[in-house]
Amino acid sequence: MQLSLFTYLSLSVAGFAAAHSWIECTDHDKAGALKKMEDQAKTDPKGLTPFDPTVHPELCKAWPRAKENPGDWAVEGRTIAWNIDAAVFLKDRSACSPPQREFKPQGPNTPLATAKPGGSIVLRFGGNGHSRGNGTGENGLHGDPGTVEVFWAGKKETEIKTIDELTDKTSIAKAGFSDESFALPADPNVKDPPGLQDKGNWMTVKMPANMEPGRHMLVWLWSFRNKPQWSSCFDVMIS
Ligand SMILES: *[C@@H]1O[C@H](CO)[C@@H](O)[C@H](O)[C@H]1NC(C)=O
Ligand SMILES: [Cu+2]
Q1: For residue 99, what pLDDT is reported?
Q2: 142 lines ligand 1 (CB under 6 A)
């Protein structure tokens, strides 16, 4: 099925209509979030709280570009989440959403992630009901939830500007969208919300050992239907 321009625009404007996700935290306390979720699952398995930083900012120690603390989840889905598929349709090959296209100093309330060369950071993004393939197949049917990948230009203070730079050469980490996620119930046949509760997905990313000290720009990309779909841009300070 060919999507019309109108459909593409309304998907990107409405934000929630299509499968979508973005990086909400660049240094997340995954163990702390898992503990809270497991506790909640015992008492209220159908009403898991999203463990994103708009609800639990105390679990987040570092923030992506243009993300407020705590911020508004619905607004972020329309502003800092970048719909690559819709942009490409409109002949825009930008790698990042407009507010994430340049580095602006981040205040003490929303610090950058820090790491040593070869060290790891834990990114958090929402499963948003898609962790078992809801809406990620052809024509919005069930499919593979796809992959998440992180890219680096190879030098400090260097921007990745277009999706044409998201290649094997700049890729530093790749995983399945749901490789690190907490989803209820255990029955894999429950694939759709509200039965499916997938309120926490993570990606642990090892920094290349050859990163020099300084600020490094990274791009996170979620691909499904074998195409790039959504991106988020953030920085890591290497010590
Ligand atoms: C995905 O889940 C929604 C409920 O959130 C449901 O309405 C929709 O039909 C599901 N998609 C598919 C392809 O089953
Ligand atoms: Cu979505």
Answers
A1: 98
A2: yes
